[in-house]
């Protein structure tokens, strides 16, 4: 026999070194972890959401401890019992002699090995379990839906809240038993209780008892698993075109599952009986019976029924189950009350009935006058060029659309949609000499200002095309009253990196350090200020300063004079991240938007409650389904989580100045939200607490709408037979303005829906026929507070060749005038940029497409300007400088002015003029005749000179020159009109024929 191998040992010095290294690693890990937890706590304490912090921490800790102790402790206990009752004497055999070396190695350190196994398994199980804290809280605080499922008659809350927890608990129970079984088998084998190759008895009495108990427990849990599998058929994917219990599941699987419940229970009893009977034949036979039964009646029989009974007549067999799936899926995605309107049913072709169309346009006083010409996805560069002010400021890549009700030129309140943005701090824009720790974190701390431009207006004139900013500049001025314009929390701030924090505050009497804004009328001077908001974590004490020095790995927290007793740290400054942190049980929409509410700039966000356990509902991948051509270019991509239930349950706000996070209940009937309100009492305010002014700015969220339109591409069909055949399927069109196949994003518009009395702010999208570019439907969701969430679908007749977005874009591109200009615009120093292609329902049977065309230079500081407007109606294309002119081309002379209303063409100048300001002639009034007076002739010459100067300045990218030229142009126009009035009524207009 070969002698046992000696166990290698370490020297005393090596043990000390390894011990010191281990202690240091543990110490640094502990300090880092505790620092992160403490900094997190300080943030929750600052925002007032400590209830969330403690509830989540306690729940995670509870699950970690229970799962860790159960898995690690019980597995270690099972191994210990196997060792404790090992045979005292073992038969001499080659097998046992080979195992002796392992026994000699383990014996001196069996306690250490056992502890290590228990700790490792416990940690692994604890970390796995703690991530399911929401499952536990849902089970603990479940709220009934008030609806029962069609198969079992159980309230849906069982499936959404209880069933997932039962599955979780069962999974850990089976894991404990299997790990204990494996550990016991190995221990019995090593220490002689299990002898596979030794003649005689194979199992000791202790091993037989322990293994029988463990196998019995496993089969008992398997019996419970079969019982739960019965309810799991509501998530079956056996149906070819739907989700949920199918014919086979109900008629060929429910009864077999019940049989398997009893067979597994009998097998468990047989193994428990083996403790006393001491014969493995009975439990072995029972186990074979279970295996055969599970294969025959649990697998083979359902497969036979599916293949030979269901498939030959699936449309008939599956009809009642398809109906369940349709109803449940629509309810799960909030689509069970969609208003379907048969639209344009009398249309028979592509040609335009000019008279009828003009009548529709004349009657339309809500949609066309509000047709949006400014694309918020294109104009970020324009906003930056005209309103950046300083390099430390910036605008996001994608601007936002909101609406405001403000007095018009006649003092009458009018609701209009605006392209809006806040002038944020852009850390990436700091120059090299500005990019120091002091500047980055204590001087340049915030943005300043709110900018808005009416979405249906641009500055007029031959070289116009810019947004007409009605709220602008520093200090902020305009028709939207902004009392607190400073932006300490925004979307751009965090883009400079995760360490983009600011240290604010100064002792009383100290000079302000923070750059606030340029001094009025000065290019050099600046105004500084001291932050006095409630946001931020105080770091006046040495301990706090040390904490943040460790957290950010930045010694300046301890050494810099900018950090003092009055200092605060502002961190987690992105609005979306703040809400996600304050409400980790919500999914947050990827597009926050700013609004001025009660004089303060406020970020508004939408929070979703979701579940992946709603019965019979088709699951969707959140991130993939919500992706479109704008995802990642101004909107945040959502996580790729799969779910089959969603509600827009929460409206959240973040104060742009002090970072206050407020959560408001929005959907008062959502059981998932009510469950979380029980789990986190006091964190979500009642809907009645939402300020009216805030309600006037709520929008229907984009990501939810994208999911719903995706569901409607199939589930607008409610007849089971037609649904199974999929012969009326729709498809989301690709964005025709992009070169990719990414989905066209939905668009916010202010328009009048068929059946409504006035225009409402809504989110819209066109839908094509499946694998065709023809339009099949038009979907809109209302954002109006009175009708919020009402979804209307305009069904187009299937035999009518309405053009889809791509076909309309193709008709634009192939138009002779458009193609010529595109070649002209696409030069070495410029490029054309198509804006959003909007679909606007007109009257009872018309669809009008409107698309702005911008031209952008290729230079460093170039920005897009609106140059043309394209219109499509039926087979006609309009292409002109203004919407009015484009409508005239399509519908006939006068149609544009009638549709848009007088005064809809905005005035010239720098954008500050009101709509009632006089507009200059588009060409100098000197070419057609002689002016009535020398003063008029001089003014006309000044107009021509100003226009020439404006053209030259825009070609050269000279912004200062453009502003001066526009000012000269406006002055010349006013001089011409004054001279015209002075000339008297008898003066003959230039180019006119005297009437004798």
Describe this structure in a few short sentences:
With 996 residues, the chain is of the alpha+beta class. Helix content is 42%, strand content 16%. Strand 8 and strand 9 form a beta hairpin.
Q: How would you describe this structure to a colleague?
A:
The protein is globular. It has six domains: 1-47; 64-202, no CATH class; 348-365 and 803-900, no CATH class; 378-573, no CATH class; 577-795, no CATH class; 934-983. It has 29 helices and 32 strands. A hairpin with a 7-residue loop joins strand 12 and strand 13 (526-529). Helix 5 (133-140) crosses helix 6 and helix 28 runs antiparallel to helix 29. The strands form ten sheets. Strands 1, 23, 24, 25, 26 and 27 form a six-stranded mixed sheet that branches. It is α+β, with helices and mostly antiparallel strands and 996 residues long. The longest helix has 36 residues, at 12-47. The relative contact order is 0.08. The termini are far apart. Helix content is 42%, strand content 16%.
List the main descriptive attributes of the protein structure presented here:
6-stranded mixed sheet, 5-stranded antiparallel sheet, alpha+beta, 16% strand, 29 helices, 996 residues
Taking the sheet with the most strands, its summary is: 6 strands, mixed
What structural class do helix, strand and pairing data support?
alpha+beta
Mean pLDDT: 85
- Tell me the Rg in angstroms: 36 Å
- End-to-end separation in angstroms reads 138 Å
Quaternary state of this entry equals single chain
H/I helix tally = 29
The stretches of 5 or more residues where confidence is low (pLDDT under 50) are: 902-930, 985-996
DSSP strand tally: 32
Helix proportion range: 40-55%
Shape call: globular
Strand content: 15-25%
Our count of domains comes out at 6
């Amino acid at each position: 026999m070969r002698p046992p191998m000696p166990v290698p040992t370490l020297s005393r010095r090596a043990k000390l070194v390894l011990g010191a290294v281990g202690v240091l690693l543990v110490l640094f890990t502990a300090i880092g972890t505790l620092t992160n937890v403490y900094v997190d706590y300080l943030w929750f304490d600052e925002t007032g959401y400590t209830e969330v912090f403690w509830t989540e921490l306690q729940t995670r800790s509870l699950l970690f401890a229970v799962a860790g102790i159960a898995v690690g402790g019980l597995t270690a206990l099972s191994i210990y019992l196997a060792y404790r009752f090992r045979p005292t004497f073992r038969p001499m055999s080659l097998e046992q002699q080979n195992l002796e070396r392992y026994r000699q190695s383990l014996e001196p350190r069996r306690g250490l090995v056992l502890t290590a196994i228990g700790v490792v398994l416990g940690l692994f199980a604890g970390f796995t379990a703690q991530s399911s804290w929401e499952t536990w809280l849902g089970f603990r605080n479940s709220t009934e839906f008030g609806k029962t499922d069609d198969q079992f008659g159980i309230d849906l809350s069982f499936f959404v809240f209880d069933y997932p927890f039962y599955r979780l608990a069962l999974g850990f129970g089976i894991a404990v038993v299997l790990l204990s079984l494996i550990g016991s088998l190995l221990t019995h084998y090593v220490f002689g209780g299990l002898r596979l190759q030794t003649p005689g008895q194979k199992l000791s009495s202790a091993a037989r008892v322990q293994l029988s108990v463990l196998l019995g427990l496993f089969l008992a849990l398997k019996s419970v698993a079969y019982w739960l599998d019965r309810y799991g058929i509501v998530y079956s994917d056996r149906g070819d075109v739907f989700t949920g219990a199918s014919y086979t599941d109900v008629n060929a699987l429910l009864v077999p599952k019940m049989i398997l419940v009893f067979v597994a229970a009998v097998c468990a009893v047989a193994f428990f009986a083996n403790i006393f009977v001491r014969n493995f034949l009975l439990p072995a036979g029972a186990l074979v019976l279970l295996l055969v039964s599970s294969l025959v009646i649990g697998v083979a029989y359902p497969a036979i029924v599916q293949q030979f009974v269901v498939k030959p007549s699936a449309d008939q067999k599956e009809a009642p189950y398809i109906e369940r799936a349709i109803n449940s899926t629509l309810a799960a995605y909030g689509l069970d009350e969609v208003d379907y309107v048969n639209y344009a049913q009398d249309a028979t072709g592509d040609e335009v009935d000019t008279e009828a169309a003009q009548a529709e346009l004349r009657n339309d006083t809500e949609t066309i006058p509000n047709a949006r010409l400014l694309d918020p996805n294109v104009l970020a560069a324009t906003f930056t060029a005209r309103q950046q002010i300083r390099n430390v400021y910036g605008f996001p890549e994608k601007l936002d659309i909101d609406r405001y009700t403000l007095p018009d030129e006649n003092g009458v309140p009018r609701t209009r949609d605006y392209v809006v943005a806040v002038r944020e701090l852009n850390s990436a824009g700091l120059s090299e000499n500005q990019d120091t720790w002091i500047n980055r974190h204590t001087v340049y701390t915030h943005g300043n200002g709110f900018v808005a431009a009416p979405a249906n207006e641009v500055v007029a004139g031959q070289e116009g095309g810019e947004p007409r900013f009605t709220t602008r500049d520093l200090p902020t001025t305009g028709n939207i009253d902004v009392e607190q314009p400073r932006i300490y929390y925004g979307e751009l701030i965090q883009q400079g990196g995760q360490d983009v924090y600011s240290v604010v505050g100064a002792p009383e009497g100290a000079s302000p350090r923070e750059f606030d804004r340029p001094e009025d009328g000065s290019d050099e001077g600046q105004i500084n200020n001291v932050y006095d908001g409630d946001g931020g974590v105080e770091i006046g004490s040495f301990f706090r300063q040390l904490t943040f020095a460790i957290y950010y790995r930045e010694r300046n927290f301890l050494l810099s004079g900018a950090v003092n007793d009055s200092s605060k740290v502002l961190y987690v400054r992105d609005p979306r991240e703040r809400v996600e942190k304050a409400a980790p049980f919500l999914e947050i929409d990827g597009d926050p938007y700013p609004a001025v509410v009660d004089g303060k700039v406020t970020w508004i966000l939408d929070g979703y409650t979701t579940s992946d356990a709603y019965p019979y509902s088709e699951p969707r991948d959140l991130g993939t389904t919500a992706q479109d051509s704008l995802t990642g270019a101004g909107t945040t991509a959502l996580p790729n989580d799969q779910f089959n239930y969603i509600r827009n349950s929460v409206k959240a706000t973040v104060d742009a100045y002090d970072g206050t996070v407020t959560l408001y209940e929005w959907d008062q009937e959502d059981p998932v939200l009510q469950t979380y309100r029980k789990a986190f009492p006091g964190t979500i305010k009642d809907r009645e607490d939402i300020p009216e002014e805030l309600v006037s700015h709520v929008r229907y969220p984009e990501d939810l709408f994208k999911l719903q339109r995706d569901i409607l591409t199939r589930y607008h069909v409610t007849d089971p037979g037609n649904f199974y055949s999929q012969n009326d399927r729709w498809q989301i069109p690709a964005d025709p303005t992009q070169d990719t196949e990414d989905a066209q994003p939905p668009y916010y518009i202010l328009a009048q829906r068929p059946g409504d009395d006035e225009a409402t702010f809504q989110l819209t999208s066109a839908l094509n026929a499946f694998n065709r570019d023809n339009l099949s439907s038009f979907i809109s969701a209302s954002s109006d507070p009175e009708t919020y969430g009402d979804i209307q679908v305009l069904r187009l007749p299937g035999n009518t060749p309405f053009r889809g977005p791509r076909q309309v874009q193709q008709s634009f591109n192939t138009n002779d005038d458009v193609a010529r200009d595109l070649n002209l615009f696409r030069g070495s120093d410029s490029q054309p940029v198509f804006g959003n292609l909007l679909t606007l329902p007109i009257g009872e049977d018309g669809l009008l497409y409107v698309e702005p065309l911008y031209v952008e230079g290729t230079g460093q500081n170039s920005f897009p300007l609106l140059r043309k407007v394209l219109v499509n109606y039926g087979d006609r294309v309009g292409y002109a400088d203004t919407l009015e002119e484009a409508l005239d081309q399509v519908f006939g002379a006068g149609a544009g002015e009638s549709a848009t209303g007088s005064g809809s063409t905005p005035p010239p100048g720098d954008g500050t003029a009101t709509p009632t300001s006089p507009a200059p002639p588009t060409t100098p009034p000197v070419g057609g005749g002689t002016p009535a007076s020398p003063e008029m002739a001089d003014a006309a010459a000044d107009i021509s000179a100003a226009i020439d100067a404006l053209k030259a300045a825009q070609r050269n990218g000279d912004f200062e020159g453009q502003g001066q030229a526009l000012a000269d142009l406006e002055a010349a126009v006013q001089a011409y009109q004054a001279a015209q009035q002075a000339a008297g009524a008898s003066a003959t207009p230039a180019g006119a024929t005297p009437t004798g």
